Amino acid sequence: MAWTNRLGAGFWALTRYDDIARAVRDTATFSSGLGPPRLGPVPSPPIEVDRPEHTAYRRVLQPFFSPEHIRRLEPRVRDLAVSMLDPLIASGSADFAEAFSYPFPARVLSLLLGLPGDDWAMLKDLAEEFFKAGEERDNDPGRRDRANEALLDYGRQLIAERRRMDLDPREDLVTGLLHAEMNGRPLSEEAVVGVMRLLLSAGHNSTTSSLGICALHLARDPGLQDELRRRPERLPAAIEEFLRHETPVMTTPRALAKDVEVGGRMMRAGEQVMLVWASANRDEEHFAEPDRCVIDRAPNDHMVFGRGIHRCLGQPVALMEIRVALEELLSRTSRVEVAGEVKRTNWERYGVTALPLSFS
């Protein structure tokens, strides 16, 4: 662990697997609900609230990420993947990031939320603008605030529209939130806006990074491509290992509700802590040869999607859409290769911004 003065008032970075595992279990000390909201005037549940509120929000949202819901969504996701991949493969080459790994997850989110028309493109642009304008990147708080407010406004408009439509709350996520109760009272408008604001960026950005990471791994390894074409049942485990090896969501924050000692260092109440998942996933005390990508690694108890009560709610959807996209890419090609300069993102979302590929 270490202290840094970067980013605002500074923070502690927990980097060891065991320290992070301890922190996520001790939610009374390592709080997700303290400190100012990161995405708007109110917290974005469930990621920015603690128990018991967190439990109530997860109970409302969980059915929309259940195995049954995802099974029903998968054929539509596959049709979308095929419609986007076929023109790229027919052309022989493309920037996979620009043409597929950036738009595809946003379009899947649009299917999940039932968004109209081409709204996904505007939402993707706004989410990327919010990310790029942040500290350690363009550092333009005014631009970041404008993008954030536009995403909040979209959420408010979507909520108003769904109130008028009054869809089945068991089938429509937004309507489900509008019908949900906490402590016997409906969720406030601000709370529903907070959930929607989270989904409108986190619902696709990390999957964009994950998909680029996985496609790059495959494009650099023809032998692995051939193996996964022969044995596609190995693809889910390979995806999880690709993401352990290059973790897309590098960190998430906590705030200390009380003093605590970790690794011989005393951390004080009110201080910020970053849980560095990317470091935990390369911890040599936990993973044998952590810097090697081993697709049949077992066990592979990585922290790609977090750990504990705040484990990523969208993990099943993300893994499904990545698997479907790569299944279709591999089944439609005999070789995928890197065909130009690859550009990467860094801190705090690791991914691929340019990925020129050739297809044969």
Structural account:
With 360 residues, the protein is an alpha+beta fold. It has one domain: Orthogonal Bundle (Cytochrome p450). It contains 14 helices and 14 strands. The strands form 5 sheets. It has a 5-stranded mixed β-sheet. A 3-stranded antiparallel β-sheet has the order 4-14-11. Strand 12 (343-344) and strand 13 (352-354) form a beta hairpin. The termini are far apart. The mean pLDDT is 94.
CATH architecture label name: Orthogonal Bundle
- Give the termini distance in whole angstroms: 46 Å
Beta strand count: 14
The CATH superfamily turns out to be: Cytochrome P450
Structural domain tally: 1
Largest sheet report: 5 strands, mixed
Low-confidence stretches: none
Key attributes of the depicted protein:
alpha+beta; three-stranded antiparallel beta sheet; five-stranded mixed beta sheet; 360 residues; globular; 12% strand; 14 helices; Cytochrome p450
Strand and helix layout:
Blueprint: E1 2-4, E2 11-14, H1 17-25, E3 30-31, H2 53-61, H3 67-91, E4 93-95, H4 96-101, H5 103-113, H6 119-132, H7 141-165, H8 173-179, E5 181-182, E6 185-186, H9 189-202, H10 205-219, H11 222-230, H12 235-245, E7 251-256, E8 260-262, E9 265-267, E10 272-276, H13 277-280, H14 315-331, E11 336-338, E12 343-344, E13 352-354, E14 356-359
Parallel strand pairs: 2-10
Antiparallel strand pairs: 1-2, 3-7, 4-14, 5-6, 7-10, 8-9, 11-14, 12-13
Could you give a quick summary of the protein structure above?
This protein is of the alpha+beta class.
